[in-house]
Each structure stands twice: as C-alpha cells, then as structure tokens.
C-alpha cells in the first residue's frame, strides 16, 4: 500500500481492514473517526466503535505548523514508534500502549488515553496532581539512566545511538530552539508589545555566546536517548495516572534538555497566573504549588538517578574495578554528585533557551498566548525573557534547585 493522507472517512476504512485491530473494530461494527490533532507535526484521529477506541497518528510529508511549503521526512513516525517501545520497556506504564504500526502509511495506532488530559490546560485551571512529581521523575530517571554510558557498554550505547538518529528532526530543534529566535527569521512570531525586549536579547553578546554554547552541547553531547520535546503539552494525566506522549524528536542528546524543557514549561504556567488568576491569595498559593512542583521533580529525579547508578554501576564510562580501592566507594559517590550537579546546570541552561524561544520563536506557549489582556500577557512575557536570560547566563553557578527557583521569585516578585 502506498502512502496517502487519511481523513475521517478513510481512517475508518483503514482501521477496519487491519487484522491487528480486529478486536476493536469487528466487521460490521459501527465505527467513527474524529480528527483531534492540534499539534505542530502530525494529524491525529480518535477512532471509536462503541466502548472501544484507539488513537491513530499519521505523519504528513511536511511540517504541519508551517504548511506544505516546509517538506519534512515522514520517517519521524518510525522514530516515534521505536521510542515509545523503548520507553515502555524502561518506564512501564508511563507511555501509551501501541496496538499497530504501518511503516508504508507512516502511522501508529495506540491506546486512547481516555480519562487523562493534556497537562497544560488543567494547570491554567489550577488543577493539582499529587502523584505527578513521583511519576515524571521515574520516567526521567529510568529513560535517561538506562540509555546512557553509565549503564550500557560502549558498543550497546553506540548501537542505540545509531538507531535513534534522525537528522531532519534534530535540525528542527537546532534551528527553532537555539538559532532562529535570536536573529532575523521569517519563522519567528512574537508579541509586538515586547519588541524592545526581543531586540535586546538579539543584541546581548554574552547571552548569545552562552546560547551558542548550549546549542553546541545539544548537537554534540549524546549522553542518552532523550524525548527532546518533553513539556506540559506532551504529558497526559489525571490525579492518579500519567503518560508521556509524542517522542518523535527523540535522539541521543544531553539529559538536561529534557528536564529543562519540562521545568521551564511549569514555570511559564506559574507566570501565566498573573493574568489567569485574579485573586492575589489564590494566585500566590497556586504559584507556590507550581514552584514546589519544580523543586520536587528535580529532587526526586536526582535521588532516583543516583540510586539507579549506585545499584547498577555496570556502564563502560567507569567500570566497577575503577573504584576498587580503599576510598573508592566514597569517591564514586562524589563523582555521581558532581555529575548530577552538572545535570542541574545543564537543565537551567537548556530550560532558559527553551523559555526564550517560546517568547520569540515560531511556536508560542498556550498558557501565555491565551491571555486575553495584551498588557498582562506582555508583562508575563517580559518576566519569562528575564528569567530565561538569567538561567542561560548564570547556569554554571547553580549548585541546587533553590538557585534555579530564586531567579524566578526575584524576577516575578514572588
């Protein structure tokens, strides 16, 4: 079968003809399809027959957010599928289950996560997710550690790295996160009310050097397989359950990029409540809740990552025998501590780059772009630019997550 783009009619015909989906859509059943995709890359359908339903996700031959004038390899669907399979093995129960794949049609059929919702909008509505920090820290610690040189042999790591290399998708992130927002580019989109701040960032030599250094790390520092687009729009959850979705950008890159992308999205949501939550006491309480969430995610991740490493010191980075001397156990613990501190610093640097690109680049963040009052929106955007700039410029000085959060409190007056 050659590729063709599905619509709500042909999507039904397609699933009805797939043997792997017969348990969901038996012959003669009444089946419907509804397109729900609002993402930047792909089209997504819910296919339903009675109580049974699945998600069908198909890669189009162009970047959806830019239109068919921007061709894009459809092989990204293979990378997303194999990433979901890898994540399911490493972090069971924290990704959607795959039911069927079709490389020729560039699609995957997976679990419909009914009962869960994309995290971004509930945070604007001040929802609380008491298990989230524990769940996402499990996902991060396990996926990052078990695909790194800290756990794998050198041969295993390089084979994994070779399997997860998609130059076209990584090029998008290199351009849209680290380059285009900080120079003249037709792809950029920003609020005219913050034009002075945008232009100041583009003229700030120290900041641009620091961003260039972060980009060099993104391009060359292949620590582990990373999701590479992990934010509150790539997480579905309720009070009890959570799934990470949309890993089509995955490749072997710096661990701090994933952690930083997530934490800066939570901070952006925190800033958005200066407009979304009118009552000062209610607003302050929820903003503190979100900053506590940032702290808890990092602290739990660091604890779990260190524990996994201490329990599984088998990677080729430094074999067990390397630490076989009287003070070796102490020094191994010190090495782990220094490594994790560098991850914290990378997290701040990459988080700052991501925060800035959300204010100045091709894709804004709904938490802030949905603010109706132009002046309040601009106020939040200015705070984000100041915080993001400081994270990038100061990240090498940070010793603990409190340093990271103190910048937020200073710039936002919290």
Molecular structure report:
By secondary structure, the chain is an alpha+beta fold. The protein folds into 2 domains: 104 residues, 2-Layer Sandwich (Phosphorylase Kinase, domain 1), CATH 3.30.200; 296 residues, Aminoglycoside 3'-phosphotransferase, Chain: A, domain 2 (Alpha-Beta Complex), CATH 3.90.1200. The strands form 3 sheets. Strands 1-2-3-5-4 form a 5-stranded antiparallel sheet, with helices on both faces. A 3-stranded antiparallel sheet has the order 6-8-9. It has a two-stranded antiparallel sheet with strand order 7-10. Strand 8 and strand 9 form a beta hairpin. It is globular, with a radius of gyration of 22 Å. The mean pLDDT is 93.
Tell me the helix content.
40-55%
Uncertain parts: none
Distance between the termini: 58 Å
Question: Sheet with the most strands?
Answer: 5 strands, antiparallel
- Could you give the order of the helices and strands? HEEEHEEEHHHHHHEEEEHHHHHH
Overall, the morphology is: globular
Structural category is alpha+beta
Query: Assembly type of the shown chains?
Result: single chain
The CATH superfamily of the largest domain bears the name: Aminoglycoside phosphotransferase (APH), C-terminal lobe
- Average pLDDT, rounded to a whole number, is 93
Q: Determine the strand fraction and express it as a percent band.
A: 5-15%
CATH architecture of the largest domain: Alpha-Beta Complex
Rounded to the nearest angstrom, the radius of gyration is 22 Å
Within the largest sheet, what's the order of strands? 1-2-3-5-4
In DSSP terms (H or I, runs of 4 or more residues), the helix count works out at 14
């Amino acid at each position: 079968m050659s590729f063709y783009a599905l619509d709500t009619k042909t999507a039904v015909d397609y699933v009805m003809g797939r043997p792997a989906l017969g348990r969901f859509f038996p012959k003669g059943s009444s089946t419907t399809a509804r397109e729900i995709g609002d993402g930047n890359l792909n089209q997504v359908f819910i296919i339903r027959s009675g109580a049974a339903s699945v998600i069908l996700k198909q890669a189009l031959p162009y970047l959806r957010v830019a239109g068919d004038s921007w061709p894009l390899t459809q092989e990204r669907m293979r990378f997303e599928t194999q990433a979901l399979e890898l994540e399911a093995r490493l972090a069971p129960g924290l990704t959607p289950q795959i039911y069927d794949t079709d490389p020729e049609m560039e699609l995957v059929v997976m679990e419909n996560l009914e009962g869960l919702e994309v995290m971004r909008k509930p945070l604007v509505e001040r929802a609380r997710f008491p298990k989230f920090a524990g769940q996402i820290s499990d996902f991060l610690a396990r996926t990052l550690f078990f695909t790194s040189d800290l756990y794998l042999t050198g041969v295993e790591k390089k084979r994994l790295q070779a399997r997860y290399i998609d130059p076209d998708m990584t090029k998008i992130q290199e351009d849209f996160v680290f380059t285009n927002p900080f120079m003249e580019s037709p792809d950029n989109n920003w609020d005219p009310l913050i034009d002075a701040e945008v232009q100041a960032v583009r003229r700030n030599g120290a900041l641009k050097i620091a961003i260039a250094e972060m980009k060099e790390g993104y391009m060359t520092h292949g620590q582990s397989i990373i999701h590479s687009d992990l934010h509150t729009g790539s997480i579905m959850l309720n009070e009890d359950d959570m799934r990470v979705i949309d890993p089509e950008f995955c490749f072997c890159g710096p661990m701090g990029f994933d952690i930083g992308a997530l934490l800066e999205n939570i901070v952006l949501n925190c800033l958005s409540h200066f407009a979304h939550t009118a009552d000062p006491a209610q607003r302050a309480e929820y903003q503190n809740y979100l900053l506590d969430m940032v702290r808890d995610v990092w602290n739990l991740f660091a604890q779990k990552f260190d524990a996994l490493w201490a329990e599984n010191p088998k990677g080729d980075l430094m074999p067990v025998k390397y630490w076989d001397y009287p003070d070796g156990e102490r020094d191994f613990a010190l090495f782990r501590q220094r490594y994790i501190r560098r991850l914290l610093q990378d997290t701040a640097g990459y988080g700052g780059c991501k925060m800035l690109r959300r204010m100045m680049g091709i894709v804004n963040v709904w938490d802030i772009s949905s603010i109706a009052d132009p002046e309040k929106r601009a106020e939040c955007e200015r705070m984000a630019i100041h915080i993001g700039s400081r994270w990038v410029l100061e990240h090498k000085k940070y010793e603990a997550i409190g340093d990271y959060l103190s910048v937020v409190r200073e710039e936002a007056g919290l």
